[in-house]
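Researcher: Please translate sequence to structure tokens.
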Amino acid sequence: MDELTDAQIITRVLKGETALYRPLVVRYQSRLFAMVRGMVRDDDDAKDIVQMAFVKAYQSLSSFRIDSSFYTWIYRIAMNLAIDHTRKNKRRKTSSFEEAVASRDEDGTLSEQHMDDNPARELQRKELRERIYGALDELTEDMREVVLLREVEGLSYKEIADVMGIPEGTVMSRLFYARKKLQARLGASSDA
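Model: Translation complete:
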């Protein structure tokens, strides 16, 4: 199935080969999980939201435009669900940072430097995670989403604009102000 494009898979699913939807889930679930996890801060909630996104996408697959990017479409569904979840649960948890988001090698495994059992290093990482999440929590949802798409997913301004359905200039502006706020917050907390 790896050799089939998203459009080919979707076309076949729509023709009745429903089992072919699974490769799309496998192809994108970890990327979606990382992004949703960055928004909701809870592994279980993130898993549920990603699952709901795939179910919702499957139910609406007939409305998907084949010439569009499936990842952009499913990402938007997942992010809307994450935003709804965040709004419903105003209290946010800033517990465990998904180490894998920041430290995966190209093959998807955790890099060795992040698997060190050094207690002092782990404490430093924990403190840094808490500072970063604290700073991210102070951003608006739109700014947080832009930062996650750019810094975690590595998307270009154009790709972010497509995913979020906003002009590239708005992406650049939000990213500029988000980075400025993060620098101020992280700079201030390191001085304390």
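Researcher: Any highlights?
Model: Residues 1-90 form a domain with the Rna Polymerase Sigma Factor; Chain: A fold (CATH 1.10.1740.10).
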